[in-house]
Design a protein that fits this description.
Elements: E1 27-28, E2 30-31, E3 34-35, H1 37-50, H2 64-79, H3 84-95, H4 101-104, H5 114-134, E4 137-138, H6 140-152, E5 154-155, E6 158-159, E7 170-174, H7 181-190, E8 196-200, H8 214-224, H9 243-248, H10 258-268, H11 282-299, H12 314-327, H13 344-358
Parallel strand pairs: 1-4, 7-8
Antiparallel strand pairs: 2-3, 5-6
Helix pairs in contact: 1-2, 2-6, 3-5, 6-7, 11-12
Length: 359
């Protein structure tokens, strides 16, 4: 997908913002070096339960499962682009709908309805958002929701302007194939504001099934602006052992023959052996890989430094990898990420820009 030239361009107002000075930076509480998000939500639940504000959730307030579930739900609400006020409105609108037969004939001693839990989740979500604002904290999902509000021109009932937005001439989206609702809304505001937009998506005409999920992304982008689609037929060369994977992996029409061909290729060239593990969950997957690593080292003569584990999303696998490797006595080196603003060069540039601004 190539360059897009929307018919109209949304230029933010050049009038001064109603806020006093720039938005203050916030401290992220969902990073490895400061993992306080779950603890904050846990404290909010316990305090609200002790104050009598939570009746349906109160028996579960001290359970780790309850905290994890509500923390995940708040993240889903943020990724859906819903503020606490919007979620509260949705809950009350549901309350106005005709009651189901179960609710109509429920006895007074029956368990609380889902609506009771939804209302209390809305209270917890509102308290969490208020705590983030009060102490200048944030998390990854809250950052995206806040970015959406900035593009809309209002944060915490204060008018916000983005004067540099009308200076952007090119927007490149590379490495994305799917967007969360809040990301989709951000793009709905951002794409019309930029005259040239380029989106790069992977594809292969020999195996279109594996890239079929990209179609919904393309349709979403085309609903925002008119894009010109260009296809590039250049492909990277692969070894003979990987060729069947490129053409037949997740290919419904040919997946039945994939395992036999991979096995045949493995017999011809053992140096390019491919083993496919079918695992029910992430825990089983990593443990199977750990067993294979030990087999390669103990029976095949591999060195630990010659083995690399590549996963799709590091944050989703990090805890499991560390735990399983510790159980299996396998040394694991998960390189800690450093934020760009924490590197000496970036800090020096920031100080230089600040001095230039002051002078």
């Amino acid at each position: 997908m190539s360059e897009a030239r929307p018919s109209g361009r949304a230029v933010p107002s050049s009038e001064p913002s109603l806020t006093v000075g720039p938005l203050t930076p916030r401290v992220a509480i969902d990073r490895e070096e400061l993992p306080l998000r779950r603890s904050l939500i846990s404290q909010i639940i316990k305090q609200m339960a002790a104050a009598g504000k939570l009746r349906a959730i109160k028996p579960l307030a001290n359970r780790d499962g309850c905290v994890n579930t509500i923390a995940s739900l708040i993240g889903e609400l943020q990724r859906a682009g819903k503020t606490p006020a919007e979620f509260q409105i949705a809950v009350e609108q549901r309350a106005d709908e005709p009651a189901s037969e179960t609710e109509l004939f429920a006895s007074p001693n029956s368990p609380r309805s889902q609506l009771d839990f939804d209302r209390e989740v809305a209270l917890i979500y509102a308290a969490y958002a208020e705590a983030l604002d009060r102490f200048d904290l944030t998390d990854e999902d809250a950052d995206q929701l806040r970015a959406l509000h900035i593009l809309r021109g209002e944060v915490n009932h204060r008018a916000i302007s983005v004067p540099w937005l009308d200076q952007i001439e090119l927007l490149v989206l590379d490495g994305f194939f799917d967007f969360t609702p809040v990301q989709g809304e951000i793009l709905r505001y951002l794409i019309p504001a930029v005259p040239n937009v380029i989106v790069n998506l992977n594809g292969d005409v020999r195996n279109e099934d594996i890239f079929r999920p990209f179609q919904s992304t393309i349709e979403h982008l085309e609903s925002i602006a008119e894009f010109e689609t260009k296809r590039n037929d250049e492909v990277a060369d692969l070894g003979s052992a990987l060729a069947p994977l490129r053409e037949r992996l997740f290919n419904v029409a040919q997946v039945g023959n994939l395992r036999d061909e991979v096995k045949a290729e493995s017999q011809v060239n053992n140096l390019r052996n491919i083993t496919l593990f079918e695992c029910g969950d992430r825990e089983v997957e990593i443990r199977s890989i750990a067993k294979e690593i030990k087999r390669l080292i103990l029976t095949e003569g591999y060195k630990l430094s010659e083995i690399t584990l590549v996963v799709r999303e590091r944050s989703a696998y990090a805890d499991t990898i560390l735990r399983v490797c510790a159980d299996e006595s396998i040394p694991a080196n998960l390189e800690r990420r450093v934020e760009a603003v924490d590197t000496p060069a970036i800090r020096a540039c920031g100080k230089l820009f600040q001095l230039l601004r002051e002078t």
